Amino acid sequence: MKNRGDSVDCDILVVGGGIAGLSLASALAGRTGVLVVEAEPTLGFHTSSRSARQLIPSYGPAVIQELTVRTLALIRALEVHLPEPVLTARSFLLVGSEETVRDRASGHMHPVTPAQMMALAPELKPEHFPAAGLDTTSVGCDTDALMEYHRRRILDRGGRILTGSPVRSARYEAGGEQFGRWVTEAGEQHITSRVVVNAAGAWADELAALYSVRKRGLQPYRRTAAIVDVEHPLPADAPMVADADETFYYRADGNRVLVSPSESVPSEPMDARPHAEDVAALVDLVNSVTTLGITGVVKSWTGLRTQTADGLPVVGYDDVVPGFFWLAGQGGYGFQTSSGMAEIAAAMLQGEQPKKAVIEALSPTRAGL
Ligand SMILES: Cc1cc2nc3c(=O)[nH]c(=O)nc-3n(C[C@H](O)[C@H](O)[C@H](O)COP(=O)(O)OP(=O)(O)OC[C@H]3O[C@@H](n4cnc5c(N)ncnc54)[C@H](O)[C@@H]3O)c2cc1C
């Protein structure tokens, strides 16, 4: 990678310093010249610092489940380089009516009896939840440690990261017989690159427009979470519990509990903030269906989960504009698919054709986008 004053030349420019961009740059670093630009002063400022930190192999369509299983294997392999494990055992218990649990349960989830459900989560009021499914392969994830691992790896392998550098404009310089190059203005930097990767999260469609690329209908949806004090803390080995109708989920967070109303409300790309009335309604709901006894809200936050119309991410080269690669639309699966998706994207960026079925399922050229 060459640096001339405020001008930088690299092979692959990754726009977005969340888990998607960092995982990909980490997979590429040392193999090619990679530069990450992030608009905010810190990495992971938006959705990637606002998740529930749970990886659930039974969650999502088949291709998401496959990427989740691969991500778990890749994170377990990288954990050997870290002083503390990134993943910790934490099962996932889905509760609700017979029909909704059956519809949501798949793959790694198996049904449990009402008595088993109550043994696993005695705080539930059983009259509200006739059926349950358990995913024992699900784990908690130290997402900060995972992002820090990727940041370190990028830098150790000669990659670069520029924070506080929003991409403002771009143009493509055709190269005649040669490949052309992107010229991107980001913050004070003038960056030339062979490829630009769109890992801009909620801003992915806006970023595409800056590069004159057709938008793919990437819609951000609000999702709120809160840390609450409770009368009856959960044991450390308690499963994460989620209602199959997606009205709430919760899990232990030390002596406190993380709760979410599981809402999916469309939003503009923005620094989303919680609505006090949503948090109050959540507290009432959880107190009515469990014996946790929420006594107060310690903090709450909102992030944007960005999805396409079919709910699958968009990964791969744009079919019209040269050198523009999509890595967006991770929705509620961004951490659990991060390393698996980065592995596939890195291979594609290096001219390989890995996992044909996965590439086709996530392709920016698929029908409906
Ligand atoms: C409440 C909640 C709970 C969740 N729980 C889980 C969970 O348990 N497990 C799981 O796997 N997933 C979960 N998710 C989803 C997960 O957090 C996201 O899928 C993931 O963080 C998305 O990562 P990203 O890198 O695509 O986006 P982001 O983290 O938003 O990163 C995109 C970055 O691009 C930058 N950017 C945008 N435009 C520009 C520009 N023009 N120039 C430079 N930079 C730009 C932004 O500043 C941003 O930092 C949850 C989400 C929420 C909101």
3D architecture notes:
The chain contains nine helices and 21 strands. The model has no long low-confidence stretch (mean pLDDT 96). Helix content is 26%, strand content 31%. It is elongated and about 70 Å long. Flavin-adenine dinucleotide (FAD) binds next to helix 1, strand 4, strand 14 and strand 19.
Assigned CATH architecture of the largest domain = 3-Layer(bba) Sandwich
Largest sheet: 9 strands, mixed
Q: State the order of secondary-structure elements, H for helix, E for strand.
A: EEHEEHEEHEHEEHEEEEHEEEEEHEEEHH
CATH superfamily of the largest domain: FAD/NAD(P)-binding domain
Model regions low in confidence, pLDDT < 50 over at least 5 residues? none
